[in-house]
Amino acid sequence: MRLLDLWIDFVNLRSEDYSENSRIPTMTFGTAKEDAYRRDLTINSLFYNINTGSVEDLTGRGIEDLKSGKIVTPLPPKDTFLDDPLRVLRAIRFGARFGFVFEEELTKAAACDDVKNALAAKVSKERVGTEIDLMISGNQPVKAMTYIADLTLFWVVFTLHPKVEPTVSEECQGLCVAYLDAAWNLIQLIGGSSFTGEQRRLCLYAALFLPFRDTIYKDGKGKKVPVVNCIFRDSLKQKASDPETVIKIHRSLEKFLALIPLLTSNDDTQPAEVDMGMELFDVPITSKLRVATGFLLLEVKEFWRAGLLLSTLLYPSDTDSTQDFLEKQFELDRRRDLFKAAEDAIVNLGLEKVWDLKPLVNGKDIMTVLHLKSGGPIVREWQQKLLAWQLAHPVRDCGGMP
């Protein structure tokens, strides 16, 4: 109901009874103490008494754990997690969000096989996906994924297809978290204003799954499918556009790696030779960099900064993996400078929103000129050639970009 211009939900105090095969309990009316003890964590079990204006801590631990920064369950953690295994992920999310530490008994329970099996069997993938998405979109995504890996829950949450090529080792989870850590640190260093919330979210997913960018499986028809698609579809039940975007980001990386040295070069006198994988139509050699970059950005559109950022992480480095903190910070600064230099070059080329470019000639016009009755590969080929010409001649009176 709405009270004093605020929406208020009224719920009764409840007690819960769980069955072995479901995390959905049978609810009955309960006392305030029973309701407090059914909560996932002690810090979430506090009541505010509007009559006395006081906080009531019926578990006797909520306020203390809140002050000391501990993640604790009101009842024995293994029993709590077996009743509702989703609480494991909620504990991780709250622990990461607030920087709280896990009670030792809770850590052991979260990592035990019984709880992992229950998480895989009793919790819907939609609910798992929601929790993971809240972690990735939150303020401490690296800490959350580190907890998941440390508790040996990574492969429970991110289940791969049983027949992937090439084979993925269990130790790969460490590399996944390491890429996420590097991407997160670089985003923080660059500044959040370069990315929208959605761009940051999918950039972090692309970083987390970067070790899987060349991993595929064959579907029922024998078609090769990126395993990232399987993770989003089957393990996280996210919207179809999420894996499509992450896969596009992954596929852009090699091209960005080839373009970065050309975009950041201080030598403007040398023409840039770029392999476009197609015969260009009337494109001056000095314009090929703009054309190649434009085509790449048309593939990833508004997520091009995500592709560029991950490419800077993969860019060859002069330092090794044994560097100390100061050297790592220097390397991070260097990669930030590399990203900014390439980003500035793309903006200066007028390509920041190249996908808004209106083609000078549409498919119907091409069919008319070529005397074709229907479209096909030849129309697509000429569309690409004409677009390349348009990118190479960014003049307002030709309909190009300024």
Automatic annotation (TrEMBL):
Cross-referenced InterPro entries: NT_sf, PolA_pol_head_dom
RNA-binding as UniProt keyword: yes
Swiss-Prot/TrEMBL keywords: RNA-binding, Transferase
Poly A polymerase head domain residues: 5-71
One GO MF term attached to the UniProt entry: ATP:3'-cytidine-cytidine-tRNA adenylyltransferase activity
GO biological process: tRNA 3'-terminal CCA addition
Family designation: Belongs to the tRNA nucleotidyltransferase/poly(A) polymerase family.
Name the UniProt record assigns to this protein: Poly A polymerase head domain-containing protein
Organism of derivation: Salix koriyanagi
